[in-house]
User: Which sequence fits this backbone?
């Protein structure tokens, strides 16, 4: 894909503010081409999601920053492919760390220690541009999207991905919150979505609508599956509900299925039983 060379700053076109995507050196089944880092600004800079610890990538950041000032490092969340690279940059540049501390759970970067207690709606004024924090729990509880206000350009981390759907891992991941967080985005003034993995999307409302519809379709498939199978275990149910998913992805599908089941239980449409789940 064009503009997807690791470590090389690639300008995003069509917006007023200078934003460059710097692709990480971590391609893989869960990261696609790699983690996208984004460098915002001309003079006063913000860096979104420095990615995992990687010396070469660190050097790429230093080079991209040049003699300008990196003021803020913005972490969408603290998964290992998004925030661990922040610590060294914070140390060497003095840039403030923005984001929420890591929740309990596996694959969480506990080294990420934000410089203050950041909150939904907080704005960072860098003169030439403004960044607003939009709290979007769901993929994980501490997820934040960052809105480049002047351009309606939203850095979506793992909340909205391009070409794939995000994994919701309970108990920290929460399908109900995820859907609410997607609906929240529909109320913002948006022109572009810039994901943590994949390319920039220029039809934000279509993408968000598609994602909500996709999750609700899956939810109905869960209900239909339980109606068909009767009381059953998650291992049985996953094969019916995710009959369109490749076999090697079934373990991941099972985790997202659990997130659907927990939501449906909360909505009082299903109940947990000794062997699994059943319709109310
Ligand atoms: Zn993630």
Assistant:
């Amino acid at each position: 894909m064009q503009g997807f060379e690791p470590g090389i700053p690639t300008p995003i076109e069509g917006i007023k503010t200078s934003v460059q995507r710097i692709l990480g050196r971590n391609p893989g089944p869960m990261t696609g081409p790699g983690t996208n880092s984004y460098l915002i600004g001309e003079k006063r800079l913000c860096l979104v999601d420095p990615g995992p610890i990687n010396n070469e990538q660190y050097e790429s950041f230093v080079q991209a920053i040049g003699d300008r000032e990196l003021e803020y490092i913005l972490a969408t969340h603290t998964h290992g492919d998004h925030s661990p690279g922040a610590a060294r940059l914070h140390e060497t540049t003095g840039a403030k760390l923005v984001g929420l501390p890591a929740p309990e759970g596996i694959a969480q970067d506990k080294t990420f220690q934000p410089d203050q207690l950041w909150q939904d709606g907080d704005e960072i004024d860098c003169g030439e541009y403004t960044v607003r924090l939009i709290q979007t729990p769901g993929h994980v509880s501490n997820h934040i999207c960052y809105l480049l206000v002047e351009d309606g350009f939203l850095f979506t981390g793992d909340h909205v991905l391009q070409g794939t759907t995000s994994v919701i891992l309970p108990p920290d991941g929460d399908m109900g919150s995820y859907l609410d967080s997607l609906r929240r985005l529909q109320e913002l003034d948006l022109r572009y979505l810039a994901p943590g993995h994949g390319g920039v999307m220029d039809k934000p409302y279509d993408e968000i609508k598609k994602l909500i519809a996709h999750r609700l379709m899956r939810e109905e498939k869960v209900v239909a599956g339980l109606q068909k199978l009767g009381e059953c275990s998650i291992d049985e149910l996953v094969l019916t509900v995710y009959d369109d998913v490749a076999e090697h992805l079934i373990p991941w599908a099972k985790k997202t299925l659990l997130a659907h089941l927990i939501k449906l239980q909360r909505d009082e449409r299903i109940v947990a039983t000794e062997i699994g789940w059943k319709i109310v």
In short: The mean pLDDT is 95. The pocket of zinc ion is lined by residues 77, 79, 139, 158 (CB under 6 Å). Residues 215-279 form a domain with the Arc Repressor Mutant, subunit A fold (CATH 1.10.10.10). The chain has two domains: 10-202, 215-279.
